[in-house]
Design a protein that fits this description.
109 residues, single chain, mainly alpha
Length: 109
């Protein structure tokens, strides 16, 4: 009989590096002025309304690779907003796509 291998210890999650003075710590998030926050929320809502009018209700599943740190940040923010992280990611993509289309002149603002 051969001796059983010992189980390997599970890797411990690494901590995010400390932010230097004057830098934003991405684990904490950005502190926004309330007016700026509501302006961004308004733009997000406008993009979501446009999305609902334009695209059909069906979605296509895709695979996307994110590093663990980014995924953890996304899940944390989604939890704070009481929504799923995949839903939040989709909202971010749609919002940014709308902004880039406006910048390129594809759609009017």
């Amino acid at each position: 009989m051969q001796p059983r291998d010992k189980p390997r210890p599970r890797p411990q999650p690494t901590r995010a590096p400390q932010a230097r003075q004057g830098e934003v710590d991405p684990t904490i998030g950005l502190s926004l002025d309330p007016d700026e926050f509501f302006e961004q929320e308004g733009r997000r809502e406008k993009a979501l309304r446009m999305q609902d009018r334009i695209r059909p209700g069906r979605t296509t599943p895709i695979a996307i690779r994110l590093d663990q740190f980014t995924l953890r940040r996304l899940k944390t923010l989604a939890g704070m907003r009481n929504t799923g992280y995949q839903t939040l990611l989709k909202e971010f993509i749609v919002e940014r796509l709308y902004e880039e289309e406006r910048r390129e002149g594809i759609i009017d603002s």
